[in-house]
Amino acid sequence: MTALHRPSGAPPATRVPFSTVDEVTRHCLTPREPETVHIEVHLPGRPDPARLRTAFTEALRRHPRILMREAPGPWYRRRYEWELTDGPDPGTEPVTVPPADPGDPADPGPGALERARRRALTEAPPLTASPPVRLEIVDRVLVLTVNHTALDGPACLRVLATAAELYGGRRNTPQAPPARPPAGPAPRGLFPDTGGPRLATGLAPVARVARGTPGAGPANGLLTAALDVPGRPRGAPYTVNDQLMVATARTIARWNHDRGGPARPLRITMPVDDRRRGMDMPIGNGTRLVEVPFTPAELCLPTPELLRLTAARTRALKALRRPQLGRGAALLTAPVLPVGLRAPLARAARRALAPWTSTTLLSNIGRVPYPLDFGEGAGAATAVWFSAPARMPRGLTVTTAGTGGRLHLALRWSAELLGPDDGAHLREMFTRYLDATGPAGPRP
Fold first, then answer.
1. Bridge partners of 157?
2. pLDDT tens per residue, range 420-430
């Protein structure tokens, strides 16, 4: 993985090459569907904008890899590069407050949060200005918009935790991740058709999310929910992430079945993040992607059996050591040809491989590792939502995070595929299937 953080005491690097994820995303950008990550933090109190602006700007400097812009260069250069800066570019304001109600400067007015969410889905911070992030303060809610070509959600959450500590004067030390026993070799027959994870559903096209009733809204739609964390029997071999995986797979299978779609294998992309969470956390696009397969027959198994199968499968996939997007993407971004020639090759590959692109993406942040405590007045986060880009051909992403003992779910979809009513229906189905993975849940 590319080094993404400047060690303490090291001389400043002015240029950093794009990683594989950065370059592939950069090649495939489309104005119709901006590549943004949306992070939404709800607080019990209202933060002071001036103090938060100062704290966030200082947090950017303490994580200098976030202070960057795309370096200009000719089409025939072999690499895209990030140009690191000492601070936000002139004329760039990373922290903003939407226009307030004229009658009450402290009141953002009705619908302000919805408008901030819409901006997060439709207006990516430009890559040509440092930093490629935008933080909006909407009453007691912080809406952070991240250009996903440059950064991912966990990296920006680390920066926001530093800002919380600087703002409130309280430690935001990350909690240790839950202990997991080491994964052994994958049992024989764990993956369908091939016995291994690389072509785990064979060469046949995988299921796509069936088309609903698209509306005339923005590039992506979004719905959120706060759910109970599903229960598990003591000593269960599966995790909440496995329960979320099963709920996602069964939701899409049922959605497609109800719309007359053929029974096809599903593949769900799952980001895996092995980075440490302290102040030395590497900042950038640091996750690697694995794909979890399901056959139609497996989705008809009793829930306990399907959960055990899913747990064994996800553990085996997490234990794999492979490039961030696989060896094919690493080869495609090798600096052999100029970037001006690699770009159309990447776009052509994306179009050609669309039938084999995974069905959806499930990004489970897990328990948010930081208290995000902004101190007296603003307080500690009561809810944190993330949402990942939902570009076609997937067209739907499921993102979850745990805060305060609750599970915060975000469904995000492409306006080319689904509409608001479809999103509400999928949310209801997902909630039902997630409940069914609990100890007392019925078999769906």
1. none
2. 999 999 999 99
